[in-house]
Amino acid sequence: KQQYLVAGxxxxxxxxxxxxxxxxxxxxxxxxxxxxxxxxxxxITHVVQGDAxxxxxxxxxxxxxxxxxxxxxxxxxxxxxLTTLRLKQVRVPYILAKxxxxxxxxxxxxxxxxRVIFPEEEAGEHAAYRLLNRHLVDYLRLDAxxxxxxxxVGSWVGTNLADVERQSGLTALGVFRAGRMVAVADSDxxxxxxxxxxxxxxxxLQALTRMR
Amino acid sequence: KQQYLVAGxxxxxxxxxxxxxxxxxxxxxxxxxxxxxxxxxxxITHVVQGDAxxxxxxxxxxxxxxxxxxxxxxxxxxxxxLTTLRLKQVRVPYILAKxxxxxxxxxxxxxxxxRVIFPEEEAGEHAAYRLLNRHLVDYLRLDAxxxxxxxxVGSWVGTNLADVERQSGLTALGVFRAGRMVAVADSDxxxxxxxxxxxxxxxxLQALTRMR
Lengths: 212, 212
Ligand SMILES: Nc1ncnc2c1ncn2[C@@H]1O[C@H](COP(=O)(O)OP(=O)(O)OP(=O)(O)O)[C@@H](O)[C@H]1O
Ligand SMILES: Nc1ncnc2c1ncn2[C@@H]1O[C@H](COP(=O)(O)OP(=O)(O)OP(=O)(O)O)[C@@H](O)[C@H]1O
Prior knowledge:
The structure is a homodimer.
Chain A: E1 3-7, H1 11-22, E2 26-31, H2 34-40, E3 46-49, H3 55-60, E4 68-71, H4 77-89, E5 95-98, H5 102-110, E6 115-117, H6 119-132, E7 136-141, E8 146-152, H7 161-168, E9 171-177, E10 180-182, E11 195-201, H8 202-208
Parallel strand pairs in A: 1-2, 1-4, 2-3, 4-5, 5-6
Antiparallel strand pairs in A: 7-8, 8-11, 9-10, 9-11
The complex binds adenosine-5'-triphosphate (ATP) (2 copies).
């Protein structure tokens, strides 16, 4: 059971806080905005109304006890950077920060955030891919060039995994059928409700957007 | 080569627009904010400064020609809903909308958006999981209860896939090694840079957050 600090209780911050709490961990949230603090008070361990850039505030909440901190103060650039620097200053072991621009990603990384995310940018990219191929359920990146893709069988119904691999340029990892992953031979016909889990290069992911 | 409309050129909207354009499609962006329009002018096919809720504006941009539209007007609730209703009214075949609250998700679905996403909420959840298990690369949902997980081998190094499956409660789909998916027998030792692609129930995904 670990303790986490979430600085900034906007949409992203409150979602991180609630998820951590729902998984059984202690979560302290801090925000300048009184209403946001009120909203979240009953949903996580503890909420403090205050300034996360203020060293006295951080010391008052016993900052040394925290396993990790999330800086979820996106649009307030100075506050986002200063909070990250403060958390570094008081030696929080792990800092995850949200950015809302590419400049901010770099600044946060250089000021000591161990991981920086830019959710609207990533979500926009995912939405574009899903718009272009309505059968695309989702994808995740294994690294900068290789992704794992989940896709509805679509027009591949009745064909088999060997056909899918040949046409898509992707490697079949498995078939999701009737609520679970099933072992399917390369020549077995694919069924209407199947979802395919495939892996491959970005170029193949892009090629999927030209398929129907 | 298809035409897409993106209404709202904030961080999410501009990301969708740029991704669609980068994949070779024609993208028209519309926003009330002149500066945002200026910023994006050279990056997509065409940008119009205007009100996406205005039927005359939509007709002036030849709305019938669009394959699909994205309503990326998150925080302006009425504009987000009215734009969705207008796009429905002029029969755009497919509408994807961004929401910033659970109420808005439901309203947009009921007013005709074919797909509604709530990126900050989903990103917050993902960030929480990755914070709890630093080896977690990412995960995607196959449905409400089953996910595909990409995870660094971590303390499983030197063990094998049979051990991983037994300890994690997840099914091994493949191993990512040296930049590609490799066939690994259940008893082969896993290497330090390996990333494992696993699938299983949410309960198993949650269990990963208690492992180190
Ligand atoms: N110095 C500070 N100390 C604590 N909280 C702060 C500070 N500065 C800003 N905040 C809070 O951070 C929260 C998130 O900021 P903001 O809404 O600008 O970012 P965002 O990344 O766009 O948010 P969202 O997560 O909703 O997309 C706000 O609720 C704001 O009150
Ligand atoms: N009626 C409208 N017509 C066109 N654009 C609009 C209209 N109303 C709002 N917008 C634009 O929608 C954009 C996105 O809105 P807003 O920033 O409130 O949403 P958001 O979802 O928080 O954005 P982000 O994608 O940056 O997270 C803004 O740039 C705004 O100018």
